[in-house]
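Batch 3, record 17
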Amino acid sequence: MTEGAEIAAPGLPADAENISIAGFNKFAGPFYRLCDDADIRRFAFVALDKHMNGSGTVHGGLLMTFADISMSRTSRLVSGAKSCSTVALNCDFVGPGRLGDVIEARVRATRQTRTLVFLSAELSAPGRIVMTASGLWKITP
Amino acid sequence: MTVPEGFSEIRLIDPFEIHVGPAYGAGDIPQRRYAFRVAAHHCNLRGVVHGGMLMTFADLALGQAVWDVTDKAPSVTLNMQTQFIAPAREGDLIEVRPELTRRTRSMVFMRGDFTVDGEIVMTAQSVWKLLGKD
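Prediction for the assembled complex:
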């Protein structure tokens, strides 16, 4: 564990790294980075009361926020760029997330050019897919 | 937070929307507009409003518009496509006048241009499933 890292939430591996340090990431989070699975970058969060909608499932806005955070971080990891901007994001809400679920994002880079990164992601609760997403990131100089 | 001129605060139900709110509405259906004011906690480290907050507001505003056209029928988002056109910053008022693209018996297609001072910062379109309608 890196110095200064917080203890990961229950249900997450001990070496999960809190990546929501400031701003909206922190306000909406916490969100964590997990260890890579070969060329797949992994992230997770635990669904808390504040993440829900009125019908007791995880809010779509929070799921899109988690996808954007996970995919933006991946765009920087694969490109080595300090900063990337989301240009477009497409999200399919495949199934509901529930309170207390550990929701994991698995993000894969489809293609990278000099200025762009194409990514796809799958968000799942244990045993079921919650959302699929694909999007385009611009490497900002 | 000061309510923008011409708007009134809308009653939010979803805990995550209450968490990121407030949000505002103005005008009558089907011309009704929605808005939120960008605060520091909505931004990233570059001082630009976070894409996640913009998409959350898009889901909130287009969802309100689905309620408006269905007389508050229960629905869920099936898909949302978003394009980020330009950055918005703390203090900006993000506005949208949702447009109904099509309504079928079981689905609603909704879209919106999200603007700051009349300039587009994001476009979004979403597909909604009306619950209990196959």
